[in-house]
Amino acid sequence: MTAENRSADQTSTNLGILVGYDGSELAARALEYGAAEATRRKAPLTVVAAYTVPAMIYPNIASMPEENEEEAALRAVEKRLGEAAGLLRDHAGKVSYRADQGDAAGVLRDLSAHARTVVVGARGRGGFMGRILGSVSTALPAHSHCPTIVVPDHRTEPDGARVVVAVDGSDAGRLAMFTAAEVANSRSAALDIVSVLPAGDEWLYWYPELELSAEVSGRRKKQLETALEAEVAAVAQQFPDLPVSAEVPIGDPVEELLEATKTAQLTVLGTRGRGAVRSALLGSVSRGVLHHADGPVMVVPS
């Protein structure tokens, strides 16, 4: 990994599929996933490793290290990128590598403005991830300029024939739906559009004065199914060869979508949806699914 190779793509505006790599086992899985995504979508692949240089205070000249801290950090991250290049030795498409100084989440957020999709692992060494859901995979989906795919910590991934997308009638949900349709089309996979109708007891908790019955729930379910028929038609018009279906399950949205992540090859969500809670940077449903998903999850920014 030479300085020339490292800097060749620094000013590119077409980073294609951008993968955050920190040398961890899960980052290697994200790298493999990103390479496959780049191949499917005929896009370039960019691998980025971030590094920071701590502010050091030395009491005297004798205590100063012989090697410059920044040069040492850069050399370490370039070694890491060399390891990534080894993992990608069989990738036939264009690959660029870059070492960027700064906080990993911030680096990926800025670069996402020039990428089609960002891929990260759910956890890592702390350079890219760290808690139940790592710091980067928690912060990035809410701030990214392009869709983010978070690869979970599982040795086997769902190999189902469908891509699942959650919609709720919001603009964010519709944007997620068409993004999911594009991804499903590139994978020759079916698209399943899901709109979860919360169970009656969830509504009664907040609005005890309501009189909910099976008849009311059935009527609302029918309304949602009718609305989804129009969405299916809209997707079919834009992607005529894509198999599209729709369903309206009744239950807790997070639990229903988590169940979908067990069998779908990808589950797609918007960052926000309807309601005050979902008006946060990353909605409660998206956040809940990300934290406990069994399969890869894509979050599409509003």
From TrEMBL:
InterPro entries: Rossmann-like_a/b/a_fold, Universal_stress_UspA, UspA. Pfam families: Usp (PF00582). Residues 17-152, 162-301 form the UspA domain. Signal peptide: none annotated. Belongs to the universal stress protein A family. This is Universal stress protein. It comes from Brevibacterium aurantiacum. The lineage of its organism: Bacteria, Bacillati, Actinomycetota, Actinomycetes, Micrococcales.
